[in-house]
Amino acid sequence: QVQLVESGGGLVQAGGSLRLSCAASRSIASFNTMGWFRQAPGKQRELAAVISRGGTTNYADSVKGRFTISRDNAKRTIYLQMNSLKPEDTGVYYCNARMTSIDDGLVDYWGQGTQVTVSS
Q1: What is the phi/psi pair of residue 11, to 5°?
Q2: SS (H, E, C) the chain
Q3: Tally of CB atoms within 10 A around 87
Q4: How many CA atoms lie within 13 A of 84 on its CB side?
Q5: Is the distance from CB of 26 to CB of 76 less than 8 angstroms?
Q6: What per-residue confidence (pLDDT) applies to 14?
Q7: How many angstroms separate the CA atoms of 48 and 20, rounded?
Q8: Tens of pLDDT, residues 64-108
Q9: Which of 12, 33, 91, 118 could be 38's S-S partner, Cβ–Cβ 3.0 to 4.6 Å?
């Protein structure tokens, strides 16, 4: 089993910054992609940012230019640097890792989530 542990959430004012971390229990080179999803109250979970094994990144239009996803393979950790935060960024942020399993096909792993609250 793979464990993903998020940290770094909290309460900030609009315009502020937070840096989220997601530490994995195995080499992150094992994963096809890793990413950050978020879920605002009353809304569906959505992809905020993703990074592939090769380092390619993609972002939701709503966060492009403000958020940066990165990784540190030696620390088995991915990060989400969030700048210029807006109240609509409020939600629970989940770390995701996707890998191909010979026995199970494509498998997703999820962290427990970390709360981000942006006040006006």
Answers
A1: -110, 125
A2: CCCEEEECCEEEECCCCEEEEEEECCCHHHCCEEEEEEECCCCCCEEEEEEECCCCEEECCCCCCCEEEEEECCCCEEEEEECCCCHHHCEEEEEEEEEEECCCEEEEEECCCEEEEEEC
A3: 11
A4: 7
A5: yes
A6: 98
A7: 12
A8: 999 999 999 999 999 999 999 999 999 999 999 999 988 889 999
A9: 91
Is the CB of residue 50 less than 8 Å from the CB of residue 95?
no
Tokens of 100: 């191909």
CB contact at 8 A, 7 and 76: no
Contact 86, 118 (CB under 8 A): yes
User: What residues does 92 pair with on adjacent strands?
Assistant: 39, 115
Q: Which amino acid is at 74?
A: A
Tokens of 63: 């966060």
Tokens 């996707």, located at residue: 98
